[in-house]
Design brief:
- With 125 residues, this protein is α+β, with helices and mostly antiparallel strands.
- The protein is built from six helices and three strands.
- Helix content is 46%, strand content 12%.
- Strands 1-3-2 form a three-stranded antiparallel sheet.
- The chain starts with 27 loop residues before the first helix and ends with a helix.
């Protein structure tokens, strides 16, 4: 996997990412940006991490609670969390020796909006 920074959709006035899949075809740049997000989500460990963070009561979870759920080393879990952060799906804050993570709802809303099919399109299927 490359070590390039992932562009976070919806920043720098880029609202074109929010057009739905059924609204208009993606241009090359939009497709490349979304592919990076989906690539970050395309790993079972990262999907589980997202699920664990999103489903946590209070909306945030300590990394110390995430690591034991996997048969992976702490540095590997940190790497996966870093990729999710770079994709703009989660954020974190250090509190003492621990790091707490939470989902960025706007990123998930954008993805949901992109994947949503308008009701009119559903009726014609």
């Amino acid at each position: 996997m490359s070590k390039q920074e992932l562009k976070i959709l919806g920043q720098d006035g880029d609202d074109a990412c929010c057009e739905g899949l059924a609204t208009a075809p993606l241009d090359e740049e939009q497709a490349a940006d979304l592919a990076k997000i989906f690539k970050a989500l395309g790993d079972p460990v990262r999907l589980r991490l997202m699920s664990m963070i999103a489903s946590r009561e209070g909306g945030e979870v300590c990394v110390c609670e995430l690591t034991p759920a996997f048969e992976l080393s702490q540095p590997t879990i940190s790497h996966h969390l870093k990729l999710l952060r770079q994709a703009g799906l989660i954020d974190c804050e250090r509190r003492g020796t621990w790091v707490y993570y939470w989902i960025l709802p706007t990123a998930l809303d954008r993805l949901a909006g992109f994947l949503a099919v308008p009701r009119a399109a559903k009726a014609s299927v």
